[in-house]
Design a protein that fits this description.
single chain; alpha+beta; Thymidylate Synthase, Chain A; 2 domains; two-stranded antiparallel sheet; 11 helices; 38% helix; globular; nucleotide biosynthesis; cytoplasm
């Protein structure tokens, strides 16, 4: 098994064998451990897991969305990226503007009631069409509040002062690579209540050694089956992009967890994935000399990606 898939499989096995059963905010229930770390040598290859198919397009377009400082899902939907839909949809169906069938607890009900699932899919299709084509609706219901992109690019303190963390980080890496302050935080305590989902990947730090850039992420809460494969690839991609911006090579991505959990309705999917062997990991190509801030998905390419089929599992909202 390749080193990247092995690190992920080892985490899954550890949680299944050592984790504690816990209640959670979503009512789904989890098996959880507290504290774990994985390391990925990005000079070897790109850590897109191969024991199930992981969509690089979804990962890259979400990351570019963060980098742009965007918080509205229209950009994502333009790339058919639906990973943030549920939180925006929830805001609409709980508003006075919504006039359709009752969508209470739509995430769970859509899995157990076929008739309701058809209603849910119909309302979600209406919602997505309005986000893409109705500017007023998009502004009112497409925005997720002060989530990652806002904190990375437009942090606001209690005095109203604004700060671009990402641009400052890049400037500091170029000017003082040995600093221990190459840090971006998405956890802004004064704005947590303004976010559709408080940041799970809360803080990351960069480190320069021998002309190589490494990144360590602290993730307070980690959905191991659905979220973590995306997080691994997303922050590895970010490390590549910032390294290129700063004329450095890539070093390691270090992934550190707080509460690492498997939702109880994901256990069968995890066990199916653990039964698979891996393929060789792919390579990342950046086909542009544009600035990090001007890159689009079309400038990126994954080369030689071979994987097992994707595995479906419900998202807990």
């Amino acid at each position: 098994m390749n080193n990247f898939d092995k690190a992920y499989h080892d985490l899954c096995k550890k949680v299944l064998s050592e984790g504690e059963s816990k209640d959670d905010r979503t009512g789904t229930g989890t098996i959880s451990i507290f504290g774990h770390q994985m390391r990925f040598d990005l000079s070897e290859a790109f850590p897109l897991l191969t024991t199930k198919k992981v969509s690089f397009k979804l990962i890259a377009t979400e990351l570019i969305w963060f980098i742009k400082g965007d918080t509205n899902i229209r950009y994502l939907l333009q790339y058919k990226n639906n990973i943030w839909n549920e939180w925006a949809f929830k805001k609409w169906v709980e508003s006075e503007d919504y006039e359709g069938p009752d969508m209470t607890d739509f995430g769970r009900r859509s899995l157990v009631d076929d008739n309701f699932n058809e209603q849910y899919k119909a309302q979600l299709a209406i919602f997505k069409d309005k986000i893409l084509n109705d500017d007023d609706f998009m502004k009112k219901f497409g925005d997720l509040g002060n989530v990652y992109g806002k904190q990375w690019r437009d942090w606001k303190d209690v005095n109203g002062q604004r700060f671009d963390q990402l641009q400052t980080l890049i400037d500091n890496i170029k000017q003082n690579p040995n600093s221990r302050r190459h840090i971006i935080s998405a956890w802004n305590p004064t704005e947590i209540d303004t976010m559709a989902l408080p940041p799970c990947h809360t803080l990351f730090q960069f480190y320069v050694k021998d002309g190589k850039l490494s990144c360590q992420l602290y993730q307070r809460s980690a959905d191991i089956f659905l979220g973590v494969p995306f997080n691994i690839a997303s922050y590895s991609l970010l490390t590549h992009l910032i390294a290129k911006e700063c004329n450095l090579e890539v070093g390691e991505f270090v992934h550190t967890f707080g509460d690492a959990h498997i939702y109880k309705n994901h256990i069968d999917a995890i066990e199916e994935q653990l039964s698979r062997d891996s393929f060789d990991p792919p390579k990342l190509k950046i086909n542009s000399d544009k600035s990090l801030f001007d890159l689009e998905y079309e400038d990126l390419e994954i080369e030689g990606y071979k994987s097992h089929p994707s595995i479906k599992a419900p998202i807990a909202v």
